[in-house]
Amino acid sequence: GDPTDTLPQLVEQSQAGLLVTDFSPLRVGRQWRTQVSERLPGNTVMVEVDAHNVVPCWVVSNKREGVVHVSKHNPREALVVVGPGGSSSLTAGRMLRLSGRTALNRAMHGDTVAVKVTAARTIRPKVHKALPEFLVPFPATPTAPAAWARTPGLLQPEPVDWEGLLREVLARGAEVPEVVWCVPGEAAARAALDGPAGFLSPARLALYAAKRNDPNAQALSNMSPYLHYGQIAPARAALEAAKHRARYKEAVEGFLEELVVRRELADNFCQFTPDYDNISCAAAWARESLDLHRSDPRPYSYT
């Protein structure tokens, strides 16, 4: 059902005093959390936890990172002026010359664009500064003091026929071939990370630094499905990878850059860009370029 209806009902019927929800910078999740919080009983506390980043998004920064101002220069170079509130590594107003960025010269003075090499640079020191506080070993999971008490008048959890649900899902999706290369589950996620043939095995980790952009090499981590569906935490993957830094420094640091910094950067963009899923959030020079080439002949038309 609609979580804005079902969650407040569940909280009220079970007389729960605490509701914990995961953070997401996307619009639908934010709307759900706002609407649920407004409909909770007055004595219920709602806590939001950023469980899919290592450092909570709101701790890393309170503004969109990586926004710079671009001025026209010459045909082969762009003069980039870092906007106010830049990172400690880039002083506001300092000039940087980026060779070969011809496309940036389409920008008008004062336009704001997110330049990839600069965007990560502004958020990276903020993430690394917070890692000692947040990238720490997981505490042991405590045992629940008691089972859910069957109190008369309160909502009781109904038993779930998981096997029946799986049969129903398989029947409905019978025409779709089953994925065979990726085995789901927490145990499979750990095996994919640090099992005998996992990403952190010497044979694969040794290839990562030099071959991760080669689609023909078995060098990628292949951890994305497990991270996406919450079957392993990025903090867990980061902690295990860090154990191999002494021997595979370049590979581990490259993996942590993508696992931690780039994930934080993506969430930061969505958190502080209301129109993140609309072309209007692109830089003016990018939109202008698309318009200029709208009628270009193309061998294929995609729908």
Automatic annotation (TrEMBL):
<dbReference type="InterPro" id="IPR006050">
    <property type="entry name" value="DNA_photolyase_N"/>
</dbReference>
<dbReference type="Pfam" id="PF00875">
    <property type="entry name" value="DNA_photolyase"/>
</dbReference>
<dbReference type="GO" id="GO:0003904">
    <property type="term" value="F:deoxyribodipyrimidine photo-lyase activity"/>
</dbReference>
<dbReference type="InterPro" id="IPR036134">
    <property type="entry name" value="Crypto/Photolyase_FAD-like_sf"/>
</dbReference>
<keyword id="KW-0456">Lyase</keyword>
<dbReference type="GO" id="GO:0000719">
    <property type="term" value="P:photoreactive repair"/>
</dbReference>
<dbReference type="InterPro" id="IPR036155">
    <property type="entry name" value="Crypto/Photolyase_N_sf"/>
</dbReference>
<protein>
    <submittedName>
        <fullName>Photolyase/cryptochrome alpha/beta domain-containing protein</fullName>
    </submittedName>
</protein>
<feature type="domain" description="Photolyase/cryptochrome alpha/beta">
    <location>
        <begin position="1"/>
        <end position="57"/>
    </location>
</feature>
<dbReference type="InterPro" id="IPR012340">
    <property type="entry name" value="NA-bd_OB-fold"/>
</dbReference>
<dbReference type="InterPro" id="IPR014729">
    <property type="entry name" value="Rossmann-like_a/b/a_fold"/>
</dbReference>
<dbReference type="InterPro" id="IPR052219">
    <property type="entry name" value="Photolyase_Class-2"/>
</dbReference>
<dbReference type="InterPro" id="IPR032673">
    <property type="entry name" value="DNA_photolyase_2_CS"/>
</dbReference>
